[in-house]
Amino acid sequence: MNSSDISIIILNYNGYQDTIYCMESLFKMDFSDYKIVLVDNGSFNDSILKIKEWLKQNSEFEDRVDIIENKENLGFARGNNIGIRFALSKYKSKYILALNNDTLVSPDFLPLLLEVFNNSNVALVGPKIIEDNKRLHWQGYFLKRINFFSYIAFLTPLREIFVKTKMAVEPVLQKGEKPFKVYAIPGCCMLFSSDILAKIGMFDENTFLGWEECIIAEKLLKYQYATYVVPKSVIFHKVTKDSALIPLHKRKKSYLESERYFQINYLKMPLYQRFLLSFFREVSFFMMAVLYKMIFSLFSRKKDWE
């Protein structure tokens, strides 16, 4: 029976070049006890052919990579779960790393994450994430649990104040070096205890794109498991291209459907609160549109005066 301490699940959707770069960074790590399970989500651009050609040219890595080909794009949750089930069955791995293909990892990022699992109630850990413009990635991190009032703050001009106070991980990431506990971490890099991941039922397959991080957070919260961020562990996240291949209206529809599912099934949010959130969102978008129009008009007039 094959075994490996860590199975790394990577989803690919028409992004073979990013996937190859991601795997190259993994193969340079100061850690070797892992297997990669590459799940292709119905690519239509010969991604798998390109990746297999690259692996043949780098044959020393071939035995570390398993490839699963889905016939269609099954989304984030279902795609990852297929890879997770395969890894747990074949390798009996102690840990599962769900990693976006548009990331590059630091050589020591994985050992630094593993150290946190010495605490018995830790179920999930994640690194500090730097975007390709060298800015700190903050989307998807939440210090505290989301509720109706924090939703309102995120959907109004209060966002700038709110994000920088109670919910924001960014100030802690910038100043601190010690691992710290959070509510949720971004889905682009999530290292799970395999036993706990299996216990909570893995990713919820009722979503296609969006809110997976918070759903996982709620599942872990139910069993009183902890999630940590490790600032010394660093990865780099490019501006994603995979989701851009899905038409904007479909992405928006999928996101809102996932959000509604999360609100109803995990936050147990009543209908009137969901209605108010939709109202505040539309008002917020309208206010921002009016504000941008006013600013544009003022600049246009200034140029005319000059």
TrEMBL record:
Residues in Glycosyltransferase 2-like domain copies: 7-199
Pathway as given in its UniProt record: Cell wall biogenesis; cell wall polysaccharide biosynthesis
Listed SUPFAM superfamilies: Nucleotide-diphospho-sugar transferases
Domain of life of the organism encoding this protein: Bacteria
GO molecular function, one term: glycosyltransferase activity
Keywords annotated in UniProt: Glycosyltransferase, Membrane, Transferase, Transmembrane, Transmembrane helix
Membrane spanning residue stretches: 275-296
Classification via PANTHER family: GALACTOFURANOSYLTRANSFERASE GLFT2, RHAMNOSYLTRANSFERASE WBBL
Family listed: Belongs to the glycosyltransferase 2 family.
UniProt-recorded name of the protein: Glycosyltransferase 2-like domain-containing protein
Organism: candidate division WOR-1 bacterium RIFOXYB2_FULL_36_35
